Each structure stands twice: as C-alpha cells, then as structure tokens.
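Convert to structure. Protein one:
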Amino acid sequence: MSKYRMVLVTASSKSEAEKIAIHLVKKALAACVNIVPKIRSVYGWEGKVEISNEVLLIIKSKKSLLKDLEKAVRKVHSYEVPEIVSIEIEEGSSDYLDWMESLLKKQSRKK
C-alpha cells in the first residue's frame, strides 16, 4: 500500500478553490493542488436533486496527513458537508514522489 494520496475536493468558486489550495500548501499538507475549473455536479441534498457549477481540487498528499488535511479544508471551506475523498496513488514517477516527500516532510517536522 502506498503512502501517497490524491484527495478530491469540490469548491463553490475559483477563489474559494485557490484559498483552500494556498492554505494546504502553506501548511505543508499538500505538495501540489491542481484546480480544475467549470465542472458540473449533480447530487442529492436535503431530499432534492441539485445541479451546481463547481471547481475541482486535486490535492497531492500523504495518508499520514489526511486527518490534518481534512481539518484544514473544513476550516476554510464554505460547504456544510465538503467533498473530501482520498484515492491511493499506487505508482508514480520516483522523481515526482521524491519531490512530494521533500515538501510534505516539512509538516512531519512541525508536529
């Protein structure tokens, strides 16, 4: 099992997505966050089917940081129930994973 994760989070706007991304990178909870604009989400909420324009964040992090990452997202997110879904990174470029590790080690030293 890999220690690296991609975490998917949706946000209401580009500015909210950037706020979340900057917060996570500054706290060394994410090595990188890709922001994918203009997604359309269809979901159930309070007994209704909702359709919303959203922005998708693809966050690169580590399994050991997920609880802290979730707390940090919830701190700055506008949604009552934000999407925070973790996907295991099974394989990747060793150079990229080493780069992630070097950034995310900063968070480990902060604890």
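Protein two, convert as well:
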Amino acid sequence: MARLTALNPDNVSGKTKELFNAIQGKLGVVPNMMRTMGNSPALLSGYLNLSGALGGGSLGAKVGELIALAVAESNSCDYCLSAHTYIGANLVKIDAGTIAAAREGNAGDPKTQAILTFAKALVSKQGHVSNEDINSAKAAGLTEGEIGEVIGHVGLNILTNYFNHTAETTIDFPVVTANATIA
C-alpha cells in the first residue's frame, strides 16, 4: 500500500494542476509517481525540468532509457523498472533483449557499454568514481559533456528510485520486478 498519496488530477489546483495538465497533454495520462510528486509542486517541477533538459541532451532518449533501466535494477526499484521497460519498449522502441541487457549494465556497442558501466559505477560507488572510471569512459569516446549527462541521468533516476521506495508508489505500468528472470 502506498505510503504517500497519489493526487487525483481532477481534485488539484494551482501549480500542481498546471503541471498535471502539461503531463496529461504530453503523455495522455498522469502516472502515479508524478501524481504522488504533485504533493510538492517544487519537486514535481524540478523532476520535470531536469528530465526535459536531459531528454534534449546529446545522449538521446534510447540511452537515457538504458541508463534508467540499469540504475533502477541497481536500486531494486520495481516502479522505475516497470515504467522504463514500458517506455523503452513502446515509446522508444527498444527490443526486449536490449532492455534485459541494460538492466544488468550491458550493451551491444562499445560506447553505450561504457556509458552503462560508468552509470553503474556511479551508483555502486555513490558518486565516488575513480580516475580509472573517468579515463575508461573517455577512452570509449565519451566527451566530458556526455560524462556530465550520464551523471545527470543517474542523479535523476536515483531521485525517482528513492522517491518510489519511500512512497511505495502503486505501479501503474505492466509490473517488472528487480532481479527477475526476463523471458
């Protein structure tokens, strides 16, 4: 059972209503995580702004989803695994094998592999990456700007993972669980 309330979009006003209307217009629905974040318009606005900014970055939507899957698996966030599996498959058109590999931090091409390896290192080392981690990312072709974007994506996904763990957000996507065997 959810520990924080997912607000009904029909019963909100002010900044929360404005944000929910924008989300509804873009996605066609206001997912439970965002409905719950709506209890703090500042949090929801910050999440949407960072997500939007990173979505327009150089890494692209596909890589952003792959990072989200790797981070969600690392943090055992079933809500985010469910959401990003759905988004990855249905909106970004990532195949099931690529989704499964990303959850484990694996990718089919060297640059994406370096991105996921660096993202997983950020999570496991709580941001205290080594010179070797940075140098490996650069050697694989990541620019300093791309390294910065990976850090941004990881930070954004840690925010949502921790939020959903705390809120025990009700999953409103086809359920995917951490460390589950993927068919």
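The chain is about 65% helix and 0% strand. The chain has a mean pLDDT of 96.
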